[in-house]
Amino acid sequence: MATYSVSRGTRLNKFLPVIFSAVVALLAFLPKFLQIPYQVKFVQAFILIILATMWNLLAGFGGLVSIGQQAFIGIGAYALVYFADIQGINPFLSLILAGLVCVVFALPLSFLVFRLSGGYFAIGTWVIAEIIKLFTVQISQLGGGSGISLGAFSGMGREMRIAAVYWSALVTIFLVLLSTILLMRSKVGLALTAIRDDQTAAGVLGVNVQQTRRLIFLLVSIGFGLAGGLIAMSNLRVQPDDIFSVNYSAIMIFMVVIGGLGSIEGPIIGAVAYYFLQDKLKDHGTLYLIILGVLGILIVTIAPRGLWGFISREKISLFATKYRISENKQKEGA
Amino acid sequence: MVNETQSHVSALTVSDLNKKFGRVIVAEGISFDVKAGEAFGIVGPNGAGKSTLLNLINGTEPSDSGEILFHGEPLNSLDPAERTHKGIARTFQIPKPFSEMTVYENVLVGSTFLKSHHSRHERSELAIDAITRAGLTPFFNTPAGKLRLLDRKRLELARSLACQPKLLLLDEIAGGLTDAELPVLLEIIRELNASGVAIVWIEHIVHALVSVVDRLMCIAGGKVIAIGDPHTVLEDPKVIEIYLGSDFQVGGAV
Ligand SMILES: Nc1ncnc2c1ncn2[C@@H]1O[C@H](COP(=O)(O)OP(=O)(O)OP(=O)(O)O)[C@@H](O)[C@H]1O
Ligand SMILES: [Mg+2]
Fold it and tell me: What's the pLDDT tens digit per position in A196-236?
């Protein structure tokens, strides 16, 4: 009998931890060299990557096409202000709490929206996001309809504050991406990938589809909450109409679809692409939206699997999530 | 094959099962049972409701009424995953591969989410063993979507083997095999059956089916036409009229 050995990833993946660490280390020193506006831009890009990665886990893998995840962006943003200003907790600790508190909301909400499927699920999540916004504007302590400012950084100089936000965003994106990679290498990742490819077959092979989806719904809510907290930190102000805006969902769908649904790499590339597009086009008003739409359609027509599918041709995988089986060379008659 | 100690216990008991799709009746008062360790064949014309019956048994389709017991335990409230955890595995007539996952990953799903907790190493061994038995070793690292139809059917078999079933439901797994390949498949099924796995096998290649099964059921229009000893069923005038046609002979014993 032939024997086989199992490995994860390719030779390229062996260097990845090194490259990953080097990039993070380089990014960590950037505030020393970069002017403030550039640091702000990096923070924006980091937030977009986090959002795209989370929405892709939910929709691209879990098949949960939600257009209401801005609910958790909003909850995270308000929670940050609440913990940091009203409770007087250290703002960095508040950021962590802002992420975690989203799970408390996501659990009961999951029982509500998981009764719906397909288009009803999408609309249901949106409705819930709107309802949460309506509740929030009723709370006068959180500034009602006009929103609330973040005062926790007011003692800090501008330069110091922006560097602090930059580092918070860097640590957050590092942890979010690392957790995503580890998750996708785990049993949950195997289940999610199976659900992505064929939900019925996954169930028949013993995957608890509903439970896996609920788990992922809860986990990504942390990521959305962290992103919301970071948005509050960098804007220094939270406004209900902005932070609960369905535009976030439109942007996330755009990033994930042009980058490539259902891979880890795709959403990152999609987020970077979107970042540069909006940076170049944002001064052109409605033309900006038209160009974005046309580009989106063009990209998915030419590359149905998104930019990453186009680049990788399904042969490369940056993160060692794939299994490889190789036959062991045999020594007979020993 | 059924031996004396096993023959009294029912692995699967189906009683008065009914199912309609709109106005189309696909199961009407279907009752039968499969003994532990038995190999049970199902034949019937196209659209008879054979695949639907498997869907009802493994829970991918809800029944309208009726009861299904697995080793005496009602399955009605369980979803497909829970039924798999109890020990029921199946193959799909139209394969449902995880297209972008490799063959190994496809089968690993089967051995990973069992209720008997295996170590990482054991899960991987189970998957490799199932792939080897199904004859898919050249394709370990091939994305399942790139397989030919025949290999997709083998993948269906490998995945169901990896689930370590007590009851295996096979849906037209032999179609398209060559004369050289068919005996290999029959040997796999016989071996499984000999190790105590109960088999329910839907197949149009009647001579192959009859060479393996202990009993045979013919259904048509969602109803049981005949059930019992395979040769008796095949000689039943109603079965000949509805399914086999008058010029049928159980030839080509394998
Ligand atoms: N999901 C569904 N919705 C509506 N009708 C269905 C559905 N599934 C099956 N049917 C119908 O039910 C009948 C039985 O189908 P089924 O697939 O069980 O037949 P079968 O005996 O397996 O046939 P074959 O030998 O061709 O595989 C057919 O008329 C089919 O068109
Ligand atoms: Mg069928």
Answer: 999 999 999 999 999 999 999 999 999 999 999 999 999 99
pLDDT at B252: 45
**B106 CB neighbour count, 10 Å cutoff:** 31
Task: Quickly state the pLDDT bin for B144 (edges 50, 70, 90).
Answer: very high
Amino acid at B141: N
Axis crossing angle, helix A91-113 with helix A70-81, rounded to the nearest 10: 150
Nearest CA in chain A to B86: A206
Residue B173: HSE in the Cβ half-sphere, 13 Å Cα cutoff:
31
pLDDT band at B65 (very low <50, low <70, confident <90, very high): very high
The whole-chain average pLDDT of chain A stands at: 90
In the reported structure, the alpha carbon of residue B162 is separated from the centroid of ligand 2 by a whole-number distance in angstroms of 23
**pLDDT band at residue B251 using 50, 70 and 90 as cut-offs:** low
Cβ–Cβ contact B108 with A under 8 A: yes
The one-letter code for the residue type at B220 is A
Q: Whose CA is nearest to atom 17 of ligand 1?
A: B51
Q: Which residues surround ligand 2, an ion (CB under 5 A)?
A: B 50-51, 93
Nearest to B87 by CA among B56, B116, B125: B116
- What type of residue sits at position A28? A
Contact A202 B98 (CB under 8 A): yes
Class of domain B1-79+205-254: alpha beta
Looking at this predicted complex, what is its ipTM? 0.90
Least CA distance to A187: which residue of chain B? B112
- Establish if B122 touches chain A: CB-CB under 8 angstroms: no
Q: A178, A212, A223: which is closest to A54 by C-alpha?
A: A223
Residues of B in contact with A322 (CB under 8 A): 102, 105
- Condensed to tens digits (0 to 9), the pLDDT of residues A259-274 reads 998 889 999 999 999 9
Query: Does the CB of B126 have a partner CB in chain A at under 8 Å?
Result: no
Interface check B29 vs A, CB under 8 A: no
Domain regions of chain A by residue span: 34-245
Contact A45, A272 (CB under 8 A): yes
Chain A residues within 8 Å of chain B (Cβ atoms): 1-2, 4, 6, 187, 190-191, 193-194, 196-198, 200-209, 262, 314, 322-325
Nearest ligand (C-alpha, residue B42): 1
Residues from chain B that touch A209, judged by Cβ atoms under 8 A, are: 81
Q: Where are the domains of chain B?
A: 1-79+205-254
